[in-house]
Design goal:
- The chain is of the alpha/beta class.
- The chain is 46% helix and 14% strand.
- This is FAD-binding oxidoreductase.
- Keywords: Oxidoreductase.
Amino acid sequence: MTEHVASYYAATANPHAPYPALSEDIHCDVCIVGGGFSGLSSALHLAEAGYDVVLLEAARIGWGASGRNGGQVVNSYSRDVDVIEARYGAATAAMLGGMMFEGAQIIRQRIDRYAIACDYRPGGLFVALNAKQCRHLERQQANWRRYGNDRLELLDRPGIRREIASERYIGGLLDHHGGHLHPLNLALGEAEAIRGHGGRLENNVYYLQGDSGHGVTFTHLAGRLIAELLRGDAERFDAFARLPHLPFFGGRQLRVPFTALGAAYYALRDRLGL
């Protein structure tokens, strides 16, 4: 059986045994393929609602990016709601904006309800190197407050010193709705919660999916939306489904080098304080 990739998270994972391999025909209400956060969140929402759920995974629960990411509970989407509003209109922004803090709420509720030991620490910090970046954080605070996040604290120079022992930053924005956790232990805990509701987890099926950037939080929201869809309520799912999914110009041959170039660009911006 495929083991978790060697990492800090695998080395510090809570004790867990592999799930049995699928060896016979089985019947269920819903079969979910993939034991990452999207699949786990969908399965748990459905199991909580009383569905007979089977989750199939080719390797181990949380084997891919779900079990070896940065563990940051970051709110919003890969494009913030003001960009969504400018491109797709106020109605779409209002619908998506009303959901953009929901993923983190789901995570905290799961941790509390199922006593998942995943080293959750509340609070996420956006830091500023100069006055221009401080003004951007002020705009960010006002923007997120429009959609219900009232737990954003602007920090001046003394305030940022209380959070980070560094002279490099002159200010910051503390998001008390954000946080950090052990992603693999969260995934393993959610798998056990599914079993606690009578759900079944089996190995043997191959599947590939990706959700980067704000994946830890957004996948938990996506799981709820998929569960709502399967129960017959498509309104919130359709708000995302209507957004165009544009292919990357040039395909993989250009996507990989341009992704690396983009990472280098933003790293340079950080160093220069732009």
